[in-house]
Amino acid sequence: MQLAHAGRKASTRRPWETSGTVPETEGGWKKVVAPSALRFADNYPMPQALTRDGIQEVVSAFAAAARRACQAGFRVVEIHAAHGYLIHEFLSPLSNKREDHYGGSFENRTRLCREIVGAVRSSWPNELPLFVRISATDWIDGGWDIEQSVELARELKRLGVDLIDCSSGGNVPHAKIPVGPGYQTAFAQKIRHEAEVMTGAVGMITSPVQAEHIIRTGQADAVIIAREFLRDPYWPLRAARELDQPIAWPVQYLRAAPKGAQPRVAVDLKSFESCFEEQHGVPERRGPRRIEAGK
Ligand SMILES: Cc1cc2nc3c(=O)[nH]c(=O)nc-3n(C[C@H](O)[C@H](O)[C@H](O)COP(=O)(O)O)c2cc1C
Fold first, then answer.
1. Which of 76, 83, 163, 232 for mutating ligand 1's site (highest number of atoms within 8 Å of CB)?
2. Long-range Cβ contacts of 21-29 (<8 Å, 24+ apart)
3. Which tens digit of pLDDT belongs to each residue from 185-207?
4. In the CATH scheme, what is the code of domain 2-247?
5. Please, which pLDDT band fits residue 18 given cuts at 50, 70 and 90?
6. Which atom of ligand 1 is nearest to the CA of 82?
7. How far, in Å, from the CA of 282 to the mean position of ligand 1?
8. Which residue numbers are catalytic?
9. H/E element holding 65?
10. pTM to 2 decimals?
11. In angstroms, what is the span from residue 100 Cα to ligand 1's centroid?
12. Whose CA is nearest to atom 25 of ligand 1?
């Protein structure tokens, strides 16, 4: 479950409609907030700078959301600190022009992120993983960059974050992003090695061999895939077949599965804790795959 606050990108239209603000007359928000009163773009809402009380409300709301996610049965929480949403807006000097404890220096710009992570970590069970998605760079001189991301990752690890999910961009509309296969993977690799924390690589990772290569060569501990799953929702089954790995198949699909495939049966939420591993794990040939971060 990803927890997010949209900051100055809130109250905008669905991405597949025309872009821009939803006015109050059409149900848009009265108050959009951000670190500073700076719009993302001309057709976006003009935000109000968050007050100190407003900041504390946001921190508490993230913690409450984590508690609800746990009660609802989610087993991984990711804090969204990327893509030009509220936390990223605080991190980046391009969107954060505050002159109080939440703006200016690296320590101040990262304060909201650290406070949210601290509050979520103490509201989320210790034994369950906490991820943070960051934009490793704004792709703009003078913006948030990979060096600051490495430093932030070190601090987030100290605060109990298990994995940094390394995306990029989204905080300014005019950034020139060299989009292409695996274009963000190098960020996951650098953060993994320099901050010695587990990372996730994301962005135009589409083939099983490409994903496997990233893991095997120690560039990241996990790959995160979005659009390829929309094109092919059965991607994990395809990847398992291509990489000759055993995977449990939905029991209803077993007749289409390779010979010897194990059934995956529906999860009984009442005994979720005990059955999770059993139902989703791979029952045989379960070799150690994890390469220690920083090695
Ligand atoms: C329809 C759609 C919805 C998305 N929603 C989110 C989201 O809620 N949170 C997020 O961090 N990224 C979101 N993303 C971005 C993806 O997680 C991912 O970072 C991006 O698409 C690049 O990965 P890909 O090349 O595998 O698609 C979304 C992407 C798509 C296509």
1. 83
2. 21/45
3. 999 999 999 999 999 999 999 99
4. 3.20.20.70
5. confident
6. 11
7. 27
8. 85
9. helix 52-71
10. 0.90
11. 33
12. 204
